[in-house]
Amino acid sequence: MSGDGLNPAAAARPVDDAQGDGRWMSQHTRFVLECKDAEPDVLFVGDSMIQLMQQYEVWRELFSPLHALNFGIGGDTTCNVLWRLQNGELENIRPKHTRFVLECKDAEPDVLFVGDSMIQLMQQYEVWRELFSPLHALNFGIGGDTTCNVLWRLQNGELENIRPKVVVLWVGTNNYGHTAEQVAGGILAIAQLLTSRLPKAKILVLGLLPRGERPNPLRVKNAAVNGFLRSWLPRLGRAQFLDVSGEFVHSDGTIIPQDMFDFLHLTATGYRTVAKPLSDLLLQILEEIPEERRASLV
């Protein structure tokens, strides 16, 4: 492979304003402004193939819910994109972890939700506003996170100045390179950290859901993770396990898109299936908290 200094396709440069209307630089400037304190989960960068995607319903249906930014400019070459990224389009794009650390300063949530996209996307649906917002909940979910990522986040500021009564933990389905026992061990390590850092909080761990339209090895792995958790979590004393995975597989072994639009992430209907038993258990836990600790709920 040619080094950057010898490869003409890797020489950063702006587009020549041959037409004299400054459109290209105007779009670049807008992207720089848009990324100020932005927190996209997905950043799309490229030419017209990226740019035009946002004009269609598929963008609103599949990518807007992922908090996506579109930095596509028609006609761009690799050189133009390289120049743009070197000249401001990546500045000030703030990772969600940074906001979470800031949010928890002097925050007083009764329930803290921590995990991956299964947690993050929950707040996009009516069921969050209906069942969990009244519980003074904070959502610290980041799409794509593994147990390792969540553990790092919690060790690096997200538990500072925060004293929730209950922590809901849902993570593990993205741990592709780990065995079921390792994934369960990672979840247990997070639960142990939570019990250590938040000695008065209850920990509620959600079981991993089945995935894929039809039976597949990842379903078997997630079920095995749940088996380990069901056995291990009671040892922590203040941790409880909620497994609703059986609600999603039909008698023929399939999962339907009405529950998981991509056979992994939940629809509004799918979230309601999870949220109802979760809400019931949260209310039960909160009711069991001594009167002086739940006075703020009244």
Automatic annotation (TrEMBL):
Keywords: Cytoplasm, Hydrolase, Lipid degradation, Lipid metabolism. Its main location: cytoplasm. The keyword Lyase does not apply. GO terms for biological process: lipid catabolic process. Residues 113-272 form the SGNH hydrolase-type esterase domain. The keyword Thylakoid does not apply. It comes from the Eukaryota. It is found in: Cytoplasm. It catalyses: 1-O-hexadecyl-2-acetyl-sn-glycero-3-phosphoethanolamine + H2O = 1-O-hexadecyl-sn-glycero-3-phosphoethanolamine + acetate + H(+); 1-O-hexadecyl-2-acetyl-sn-glycero-3-phosphocholine + H2O = 1-O-hexadecyl-sn-glycero-3-phosphocholine + acetate + H(+); 1-O-hexadecyl-2-acetyl-sn-glycero-3-phosphate + H2O = 1-O-hexadecyl-sn-glycero-3-phosphate + acetate + H(+); a 1-O-alkyl-2-acetyl-sn-glycero-3-phosphocholine + H2O = a 1-O-alkyl-sn-glycero-3-phosphocholine + acetate + H(+). One of its GO terms (molecular function) is platelet-activating factor acetyltransferase activity. It holds the Pfam family Lipase_GDSL_2. Residues 1-22 are annotated as: Disordered. One of its GO terms (cellular component) is cytoplasm. It is an enzyme of class 3 (hydrolase). PANTHER family: PLATELET-ACTIVATING FACTOR ACETYLHYDROLASE, PLATELET-ACTIVATING FACTOR ACETYLHYDROLASE IB SUBUNIT ALPHA2. Belongs to the 'GDSL' lipolytic enzyme family. Platelet-activating factor acetylhydrolase IB beta/gamma subunits subfamily. This is Platelet-activating factor acetylhydrolase IB subunit alpha2. It comes from Scophthalmus maximus (Turbot).
